[in-house]
Amino acid sequence: MTLILDGVFVRRRGETWLDDVRLELSNGMTTLVGPMTAGKTTLMRVAAGLSPPDSGRVMVDGKDVTSISVRKRSVAFVYQQFINYPSLTVYENIASPLRLDPGFRRDGIDRRVREVAELMGLAALLGRRPAELSGGQQQRTAIARALARPVDVLLLDEPLANLDFKLREQLRADLKAMFADSSGVVLYATADPNEALTFAAPTVVLGEGRVQHIGDAAEMYARPPTLAVAATLSDPPLNLLPGVVRDGRIECLGAEFPAPRAHPSGRTVTLGVRPHQVRLERGGPGALEWPAEIRLAEVTGSATFLHLLLRDQVHLVAHLPGTRQFTPGGSAVAYVDPAHVLVFDEDGARLPATGAAEVDLHG
Amino acid sequence: MTEVGEEPRADLKRRNNRAWWLVLPVVVSVAFTAVIPLMTVVNFSVQDVFTPSDRIFVGLEWFRSITRDPEVRSAFVRTLLFSAQVLLLEIPLGVALAVCMPRRGVWVSVALVLVALPLLIPWNVVGTIWQIFARGDIGLGGWAVNHVPGVDFNYTLDSTDAWITVLVMDVWHWTPLVALLAYAGLRSIPEPYFQAAQIDAASAWATFRHIQLPRLRGVLTIAILLRFMDSFMIYTEPFVVTGGGPGNATSFLSILLSKIAVGQFDLGPAGAFSLLYFLFVQILCYVFFTVLTRSGR
Amino acid sequence: MADIRLEGVGHSYDGGRTWAVKPMTWTWRGSRAYALLGPSGCGKTTLLNIISGLIIPTVGRVFFDDRDVTGVPTAGRNIAQVFQFPVLYEEMSVYDNLAFPLRNRKYPAKEVDQRVRQVARLLSLEEHLGRRSRRLDAGRQQIVSLGRGLVRSQVAAVLLDEPLTVVDPALKWTLRSKLKEIHRDTGHTLVYVTHDQTEALTFADEVVVVNDGAIVQAGEPAELFLSPAHEFVGHFIGSPGMNMLPAEIVAGVVRIGPSEVGLAAADGVHAGRSDVEAADGLPAGPVRIGVRPEFVVIGGPRRSPGVAATVTGTDRMGAYDLVHTLVGEHPVLVKTEAGALHEPGSAAFLHFPAERTFLFRDQVRCGSLAPLDGRSTA
Fold it and tell me: What's residue B297's pLDDT?
């Protein structure tokens, strides 16, 4: 099974919502990650056939389905809101798509409903109506309904976004296991980078209506090709610092280090530093060091988020392990190993490290 | 989730067109009930009809004479004035009524039934009720006005009294519709909006002005359109109560039209009259709708 | 800033059959930033609405300092509240939205302007002040709602009901630290309702964990994280939550199956002490071990006390790895540095550090683990 979006454009009210989206998805799960206004929902709706693209084609298994109504396609869609039939029991909710499918006989339906309910942990709740369920159970019912009938294309649009943090954590793990050996195309949209990283599925980064990059989430995290990808996959957010190239070295707020690659002098670059790469102890020779003012410390128990101000203007957040006490207004020195600094040029493309010195940016 | 609610493009040629067959019965029945009669009227409006077999094509003659007819003109102004007064009274009154209705509890259904009561009465019965109610001798309302404040009130003789009677009757009959629409609009406002207003120490007026009124825009657009169309074409009630009198005081366009068409059997002028009437209502509704929906953006 | 005192306050929506908030006595101290953390339906929003006066509690009294405000309506309590979804006066500009609560309270025009601009600067809304609020995207609308909550200088408390739900993940971090800074600068009493433990822990001076209408534990974030008093707190705080494993105390030694993992030390006795008497406080029998994924040590020397496990997989989370293991049939998660190599199916050895491992009975903490070598040296 394959799903192909070929040069899809969507324009609404003078704005371009999808800009030449080209995607080729095959069996199993793909994660679609991007910020809230990236166009994820629009892309999902086009892929489902709920709204037609202004131009471009949607193909399932090599067949152009762009003009085929969603009713005739083998598609299931799970929304962020928990959408179930309020007057039907959980059992009937899950059974409803099967009853419309002539391929299912009565006993087949019953078996399938119980199978899916078991999988989603709903077996004990089959007799209840949606109003009698918690939010997590309601969303699990909605997902079960989408899963019940084997479909070519299953689309999930931020299905966990409205759930409690802890439920999200749990369902995330459940879903990963469930989609592991899916026979159809599963496209899962999320704004939460942690979901993309947990699923460890092929990941599409979407930003401003364009496909920014496609690849393995952990790999993209470690070696982001562009600033947009790095920012989308970072939680807590990436620290951004201004830099200038001078004679093969990059200067940034008084610190400097060798430029990763021959880059013309005088060009400005943006440095991306992940919060957990910032240290308060000098790690080794050549570490970048910035004297800083302590603005704020957030102590969570497992870690301390220290908000620093460099040269009275640039914010830098350090994610330090363990609990540590700091006095706001005091001063500290922030150290960063240049090997862990992501350097982006003016267009947002990352400059790879010099030669073979591409270090593993994990950890 | 930001891009929900987009409208599907009308890209019909690439889509399944079979649903159009389902529309066919409607098209056929509308053709018989609306299009064909309308065409007959168009036909009449450009001819001088003596007998059904004996008629002369007169071009736009009737349109010219109708637009110049002083009786039609004064009826037009009268009807417009009536509609304006109806809107000015019923919309604020309806909204006020809706705001005063309880939001929850057992009194909701009681209030709804009480308010909706006038809507359940047939038009001509409303007319009859008010014809009697407003009479100075045996009607409770008319008698009360004559005796309690001691005003001389007689709608069969005094044209102002007749006008007021018809207006009050319409307000009594149709304000509930506005109220029900507005009430439905008010009910759809989520509770946190009212809580936020309390926290911001907003007065009752400010709450109404900044929370309730902006969110009533949609239903009020519908209410204004409905009430305008209906009041501009009012016929039954004044026909029953005053018959257009005294003199021409309550002779609205529709009453005049039926007099020309049915009373005098002037089919040509009546046809032209109907068409102009129809066009005017259409245009004004379009203007209302555009203005009201545009201003909301 | 006033202390807000709840005395025997409880609320029932069905005339006392079930309690949404069970009667409780609790004081919110002035000028502190609180997080009210719990799952949805635990009563945290009800509790918030009792403070703001949107709900009159079924039982109990509410005091702002010494003033009984139980029957005082919201407008008379001088409270600011921000809701989960943007609540705006849609036809007003952003500026007018921010000014609205001040104008209603008859602030002088000059002060209104000054405060509005100050809040707009704090929340980076300056360039949007002239725009009609309904034209903003949902995230920015919520920032305006937040601004309306923060614009008043004299408030008894600012109550925030899951205010960052509709905001982009990256912006959440920024806004939260901004809120914390604003709190430090203004000294408002803040109560922040959330189901998100990261939000609660990073934001609050003190986290109040609520479950099923009652306060389970309250304390500084680090205290709740490092020393949970209840299984629920262990589970609900931390991401992922605490690992819970069934074990048994036999003659003062905690065992998982045949493996000895440490001595059982009753609460109240310092867990780190090599003190044999410590074990006397805990009777033998089943117990549950709780240890956070951050503190489980994987691959330590096999001689030390610990337990054998099987690796089932690894989530590479970028900044760290999450190793999934099974001890018997019970999953144990281990948070390790990124890049660690643990093949699925391979055997691993887990060690539970004494000072970070706790013992629970009937969900409530009864003790902690003490080093096993304490016995051998004794």
Answer: 53
Look at residue A51 and give its three-state secondary structure.
coil
Q: For chain C, say whether A115 makes contact (Cβ under 8 Å).
A: no
Domains and CATH numbers, chain A: 2-232 (3.40.50.300), 239-357 (2.40.50.140)
Subunit partners of chain B (3 or more CB pairs within 8 A) = A, C
Nearest to C256 by CA among C363, C333, C332: C332
Cα–Cα nearest to A250, from A343, A317, A335: A343
Measured between alpha carbons, how far is C353 from A99 in angstroms, rounded to an integer? 55
Decide which of C200, C235, C270 is a domain's last residue: C235
Kindly state whether residues C214 and C293 are assigned to the same domain. no
Same domain flag for C332 and C223: no
Length of chain B: 297
Number of A to C CB contacts under 8 A, please give it: 113
Q: How far apart are CA B223 and CA B210, in angstroms?
A: 20
Domain limits at C333? 240-377
CB of B2 less than 8 A from some CB of C: yes
Q: Within chain C, where are the H helices?
A: 44-52, 94-104, 109-122, 138-150, 169-186, 197-203, 221-226, 231-236, 373-377
What is A171-198 written as a DSSP string? HHHHHHHHHTT-SSEEEEEES-HHHHHH
CA proximity to C238, closest of C287, C290, C190: C290
> Going from the N-terminus, what domains does chain B have, and what CATH number goes with each?
70-263+286-295 (1.10.3720.10)
C308 phi and psi, to 5 degrees? -80, 145
**Whole-complex ipTM:** 0.84
Q: Is pLDDT at B6 greater than 70 in this prediction?
A: no
Least confident of A19-23, A123-127, A261-265, B289-293: A261-265
Q: How many CB pairs under 8 A join B and C?
A: 52
**Where are the strands (E) in A163-258, listed by range?**
185-190, 202-207, 210-216, 239-246, 249-252, 255-258
Contact A156, A146 (CB under 8 A): yes
DSSP designation for A351 = P
Q: Which residues of A touch C184 (CB under 8 A)?
A: 296, 328
**Domain final position from C181, C208, C235:** C235
* C-beta atoms of A41 and B3 within 8 A: yes
A99 neighbors A127 (Cβ within 8 angstroms): no
- What pLDDT, on the 0 to 100 scale, is given for residue A357? 43
> Per-residue pLDDT averaged across B147-158, rounded?
81
Distance from CA of B289 to the nearest CA of C (A): 19
Longest alpha-carbon distance in chain B: 77
| CB–CB contact A235 C177 (8 Å) | no
Question: For chain C, how many structural domains are there in total?
Answer: 2
Listed residue (C341, C342, C348) closest to C308, CA to CA: C348
Closest C-alpha among A254, A223, A236 to residue A343: A223
Which chain B residues touch A73 with a CB distance below 8 Å? Answer: none
Separation CA A214–CA B274 (nearest Å)? 66
Neighbours of A151 (CB within 10 A): 22
Tokens read off for A331: 């001063």
H helix or E strand, kind and range, residue A155: strand A153-157
| Tokens describing residue C282 | 């805990």
Per-residue pLDDT at A92 exceeds 60: yes
Q: Which helix (H) or strand (E) holds B193?
A: helix B191-199
Query: Mean pLDDT over residues A43-71, rounded?
Result: 90
- Summarize pLDDT for A228-254 with one digit per residue, the tens: 999 999 988 999 999 999 888 889 998
**Maximum distance among all alpha carbons in chain A?**
76
Strand order across the A314-321 sheet: A314-321, A303-310, A288-299, A331-336
Angle at CA of residue C330, ends C325 and C334, nearest 5°: 35
